[in-house]
Fold these 2 entries.
Entry 1:
Amino acid sequence: MKTQVAIIGAGPAGLLLGQLLAKSGIANIVIEQRSAAYVLGRIRAGVLEQTTVDLLDQAGVGARMHREGLPHDGVELCFGGQRHRIDLHGLTGKRVMVYGQTEVTHDLMDARGAAGLPTVYEAEQVKVHGFDGQRPHVTYRLGGTEHRVDCDFIAGCDGFHGVCRASVPATAIQLHEKVYPFGWLGLLADVPPLHHELIYVNHERGFALCSQRSHTRSRYYLQCALDDKVEHWSDDAFWDELRRRLPAATAAELSTGPALEKSIAPLRSFVAEPMRFGRLFLAGDAAHIVPPTGAKGLNLAASDVGFLWQAFAEFYGGSPKALDGYSERALHRVWKAERFSWWLTSLMHRFPDGGSFGARMQQAELEYLFSSKAAMTVLAENYVGLPM
Ligand SMILES: Cc1cc2nc3c(=O)[nH]c(=O)nc-3n(C[C@H](O)[C@H](O)[C@H](O)COP(=O)(O)OP(=O)(O)OC[C@H]3O[C@@H](n4cnc5c(N)ncnc54)[C@H](O)[C@@H]3O)c2cc1C
């Protein structure tokens, strides 16, 4: 097979890039190691920045999101038993859209299928070759047969554990990493959300987040120990612990029900630099990870793709240098989102070695935040997403 851009990975980054490239008349194939059902079954992000909404519109897949998504004008931070609202829209003129990553993926898969664009699921032993020269290609096995795709470029959209970043020589890449001493235990349930906006909780027992996917589906998280196991948490134990971390009046309003999904995710900050290696370009989680506190992971994947799409469109439009700025442009935005995600994580979680000094620093910072329009504006600007 021959194509212009071979995209590795059918997560949001890979599928969105494929859709945008196709809109610009650039041929592409998506090669994914899992089945479509497996990809759709992964419960992940749910808060979209305006830049992500705009890109989904440009890709022609925004209709259902606008119908079913929930625009949010604010977010709440709860500390010392008090809830404080950050007026995102009042402070920035912007809002965020609550619409699950699963739904985004669904819409992108449907559009790709309807357009008849080639996608290979359940590809085994995916390997990327020759990206340091003029003739890159990708090989994989499917149904016991070896396949080869010759291409102009490879887009590594294959997530944190993918093959693309791992194929780059160690001397050509610089890795920056911070692992946090806790994880998030998440629970998804078909119950109405506790509140119409998200509530982030800093509590002495640990962080909690009351999030949502729709008017009838809620997503809750609890800070947990890194070595904790999902099997240790019955649904009742989860709901009881969540109630303990909420103000009593708020806890009384919580609707509970059986978990549709429960999982534990470790928290990590990670950046690989640069994001281009010859004819291989990294985008999304393949290049960087943020702790989910700032709701930036999916949004960064989308903005990388936005930059990469523009660069490819200009390149094929006759500007041979257009691809040169991709890594720098993307990383400029990535590092700002890394900073915000690290800051909000540090502010809202209880650190095992934080001691009373760490707790008082958080208290001082939160009290200042709630008293200062300037400080709330900084939070709001970053939460709704910095410009691309
Ligand atoms: C448990 C969890 C919860 C999260 N919660 C949030 C949240 O609440 N808010 C938020 O903003 N972000 C969250 N994130 C982050 C967000 O989901 C990611 O940033 C987003 O999925 C990145 O998209 P991506 O396409 O870059 O990578 P992925 O979604 O990881 O997609 C990569 C794709 O590549 C495929 N792949 C991997 N290796 C290969 C290979 N060798 N060959 C072919 N295909 C391959 C994978 O199967 C996958 O389909 C969460 C992530 C996790 C893991």
Entry 2:
Amino acid sequence: MNKAVFLDRDGTIIKDRGHINDLKDIVFYNYTFDCLKELQKEFLLFIITNQPGVAKGIINSGNLNRIHSYILQKMSDHGIDIKEIYCCTHRKEDNCLCRKPGTLFIDAAKGKFSIDLENSYIIGDHPSDIELAIRTKANGIYLLTGHGQKHYRELSFHQKQRIKICSNLKSATQTILKAINYGT
Ligand SMILES: [Mg+2]
Ligand SMILES: [Zn+2]
């Protein structure tokens, strides 16, 4: 069994610039590559993102593909291997199974890469990332970057009890490495 870290995209590894439809709006946090290099020593890495702007006609699907190729290229330039980018392009009202907190992508990754979810992490800046972690019995880490501050009050007591809250991906990485090294 493999352990994994599922990373949200906007507000987690790149700055949240709303519906991104252009490569020039991709801005990595200055700690992103260092964090992922550390995490990949112990975990398979995935990106999991909701991009409803595609269904809404705000994001062109060709541009979305170029954006994801660019992200993978930048990762590869830094020696980081992202196993898959899982992207839901539907709107909430489409009621698909892949939009977070829908578990379809996690279920797929679990089967394809034999992932031990109880020892894996889901990191993101939105309550839907946390709900996904709870539904899949993975460890959730809520970040205060991106939309994290804004949506913090939407987290229920139950959700807050089940997860860790970190200021950003750097602090989340330290939290994870500490937990696996000391078993806390
Ligand atoms: Mg996000
Ligand atoms: Zn979907």
